[in-house]
Amino acid sequence: MRTGLFTHSACFEHVTPPGHPERAARLRAVLDALDADAFSSLARFEAPKAEYDALQRVHSSELVGGILSATIEPGGFAAIDADTTMSAGSAAAALHAAGAVTAAVDAVMAGRIDNAFCAVRPPGHHAERARPMGFCLFNNIAVGALHARMVHGLGRVAVVDFDVHHGNGTQDIFFSDPNLFYASTHQFPLYPGTGLPSERGVAGNIVNVALPPGAGSARFRAAFEEQILPALAEFGPQVVFVSAGFDAHEADPLASLRLREEDFAWATQQLCTLAARQCGGRVVSALEGGYDLEALAGSAAAHVRALAAGGKG
What we know:
Blueprint: E1 3-7, H1 24-34, E2 43-46, H2 52-56, H3 61-69, E3 78-79, E4 85-86, H4 90-109, E5 115-118, H5 140-152, E6 157-161, H6 168-174, E7 180-187, E8 206-211, H7 217-235, E9 239-244, H8 261-278, E10 283-287, H9 293-309
Parallel strand pairs: 1-2, 1-5, 5-10, 6-7, 6-9, 7-8, 9-10
Antiparallel strand pairs: 3-4
């Protein structure tokens, strides 16, 4: 498999206040891991800025305009909520983060690569249609998903999210469209407080598997095998997106699931295998959470190795 890596140096310029867990060092840890000789075959791409139309397919004009027009002095911060801030470089970082996913879709659809990982920040899956929140400004994975539909004519688009936090933003954007599928494993109770199994979407197109604190590999893999993969197969995706958060790792400081690198690799292999059967192997992944730097680097590397193996590793 030919796997693409999409990133941009602007993503380092989204500066967060001292002590904030979503910091530029996260992206550096991931990219350093992917600079190893084992990843020399990756096709590397500089992410463009997302087009305004791509953002407006997903978000309200007020949200998009507010982020893009924010004026912040160098060294200063603008608070969006208790967890989410912007710095002088945040708007450009967010544009490149969303643009990485649309560019990855274009490259996969053109056959230049088979699948892709977007190493970007700020993350995206908490950003709702009209509200940035939870460290997130634009919903990068949703921007890519609707780009795949509107630009490339893919009718059935799926997102699978294994971040430890529920992707309330992606669910919000997908909930009322039966041709958009969202599945999530996440710890519950935990921020943002959404993601109950009863949240099913307009046509059963939302699948939430809430895992209790302390759950490990067995519960996580059972969630995939018994619920997420069968529902995804029944949906019949034409492309599979992955919200690849690695904060369900046992070392992560913000939650208390007990996953390890091999669990993320296994989940990625399962998704790639299903995609190979159903949609020509088209998988586009984007970085979400993960706040222990060593665990994040190792987990992202395991994820990308599985993408490169196409589900066979």
